[in-house]
Specification:
Helices cover 33% and strands 24% of the residues. The chain has 407 residues and is α+β, with helices and mostly antiparallel strands. The two termini are 51 Å apart. The model is unreliable at 99-111 (pLDDT under 50).
Length: 407
């Protein structure tokens, strides 16, 4: 029996083998873990679908395998029986197979292409002959990234031809040797593919603004004295959910194939998290049902799981909007990339104490934070994005409203 790397995530098409938990010749039971594979979202264990003996292992640790690929073979003891039963009918089966093959061979030289309609559309839009593309998806299926890579190679080749007459200096052998390399695969490669896909597919627009956190920080101090140690991020999350309720176009996903925008009825906020393995986005589900205390506890638990590489697929699915708190790392601005197929992402940057002219024209030292909001311009317009951001800032600058507002 073949044990294949099946699709365990949304849009996943490959993974990197981290370790094998069995050896050739070893007996295994049903549901016993056989191999650990790192996808772009998590470390997944592939269980045994049957009891038997490990017959063959087709890859090595560090190899990248595509979804649908056979990783391990298990001898269940049934193969020998089936082989004996088939020996008597083998000549007839071979004859039938030969006739079937002859009858089904294409007579017009047509090459069957495995590709989704939208992938074919991308190829047409870019003038790419899809029959010349080697698919990297399951069973050789051509995926969107294959088309974009073909376009990129064509552009590079054109540039090389354009500058082929230029004289290049001789390579410096010492410089060639004085380099280190790190592998570009696994999570790093998956993140790169996802970011490239998002930028190529979504017309990003980023709106920049700032918020006064002074009153929020004072409220935090009061809560801490009362025994509630809540960071600023749960306030950001709740303010985001309230703003999404009032501007649901940003809690949405565009379905181009069916020409419809799906507005999510609940608020599942992704929290971009920096880990040793790369960027992870665990999801805080059903924010409308959670208090600030609940959000704080769940956020800490998910962040810990992300750092330990223990996020489950359920922890990563169904996000409707993403936030990124990069303030503790430093920096006063950025243009965050949308977590496709979502419509928006908001980043919070470094907080600084600054002199501010107040409404009474007095100058005061306030705790100011820059923020940036990237959105899909196919789905929403700039005026709506500004209104959404203004509502978020209002809730942050008057945090007592967060204790009164319902999501």
């Amino acid at each position: 029996m073949e044990v294949k790397f099946h699709d365990i995530g949304e849009g996943m098409n490959e993974g990197e083998i981290l370790s094998f938990l069995v050896k050739v010749g070893e007996d295994v039971t049903v549901d016993q873990a056989l191999v650990e594979i790192q996808t772009d979202k998590m470390v997944a264990e592939i269980p045994s679908p049957t009891a038997g003996t490990i017959k063959a292992i087709h890859f090595e640790i560090g190899d990248t395998v595509a979804v649908g690929t056979t990783v391990i073979e298990i001898d269940t003891g049934k193969e020998n029986i089936a082989m004996k039963q088939s020996e008597s009918t083998e000549p007839q089966v071979a004859a039938v197979a030969q006739r079937t093959s002859q009858n089904t061979l294409p007579q017009n030289g047509y090459k069957r292409i495995l590709a989704a309609p939208y992938t074919r559309k991308i190829a047409r839009d870019h003038g790419v002959d899809i029959e010349t593309i080697q698919g990297t998806g399951p069973a050789g299926r051509i995926i969107e990234e294959d088309i974009y890579q073909s376009v990129k190679k064509s552009s590079t080749k054109a540039e090389e031809i354009r500058y082929s007459t230029a004289t290049e200096p001789a390579p410096n052998k010492e410089m060639e040797q004085a380099t280190d390399t790190i592998p570009f695969k696994g999570i790093r490669k998956q993140i790169a593919n996802k970011m490239s896909h998002s930028l190529q597919k979504i017309p990003h627009v980023t709106h920049f603004d700032e918020a006064d956190l002074t009153d929020l920080l004072n409220l935090r101090k009061q809560l801490k004295k009362a025994g509630e140690n809540i960071s600023v991020v749960p306030f950001f999350i709740k303010a985001t959910a309230i703003s999404l309720k009032e501007y649901p176009i940003f809690n949405a996903q565009l379905d181009e194939d069916n020409e419809v925008i799906h507005l999510a009825k609940d608020y599942h906020i992704g929290l971009a998290t920096d880990t040793k393995s790369g960027l992870m986005v665990p999801i805080l589900h059903h924010i409308s049902k959670k208090s600030l205390r609940d959000i704080q506890l769940e956020m800490k638990a998910l962040t810990h799981k992300a750092q330990e590489g223990k996020l489950s697929m359920a922890d990563m699915k169904n996000g409707t909007f993403t936030i990124s708190n990069v303030g503790p790392l430093g920096g006063t601005g950025a243009t965050p990339i949308i977590n496709h197929p979502q419509t928006g992402i908001m980043s919070f940057h470094k907080m600084k104490k600054m002199p501010v002219v107040m409404e009474d024209e007095e100058i005061a030292i306030r705790s100011m934070m820059k923020l940036s909001f990237s959105f899909d311009h196919r789905v929403a317009d700039g005026a709506t994005a500004i209104a959404f951001t203004n509502r978020f800032i209002e809730l942050i600058e008057e945090p007592n409203k967060l204790l009164l507002e319902m999501v």
